[in-house]
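Take a look at this chain, tokens included, and explain the fold to me:
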Amino acid sequence: MKKITIYTDGAARGNPGESASGYIIYGKDGEILKKHEEYNGVKTNNYAEYNAILLALGWCTKNMGNPEKLGVVLYSDSQLVVNQLNGVYKVKSSDMLEFNERIRTIIGNFGSFKIINVPRENKSIILVDAALNLFLDKHQKARIYKPNNL
């Protein structure tokens, strides 16, 4: 079974506010297999967190071969999202319930899956968070300085 480790994070500047989702996927030897950031528009921090997980798992499903032969450990600093996906907390928001159900369907296809809450101070979470903040900075500058169509 192939083993991978995923670190996800979502960032929102305001809640809701300008937001982005990102992840880093490591192979068994610690090599980075994929790093990705994606702009979400004006969304909540929970939307950004859930979307980061969905994007990472979607990439794995498409690019890592047979999901049944894949062991995934996913780390997130969102206690709410981790506990909702683990069934500890109820999902009250209909938008988040849709994310939750889609993610649960995907993880059911993996050979093994575990999601773990880690503190924001985790080295890999800090890397994803820093990348998301740079990404949002660039996006906001591009939007502010975009020339008018002539």
Observations:
- The chain has one domain: 2-145.
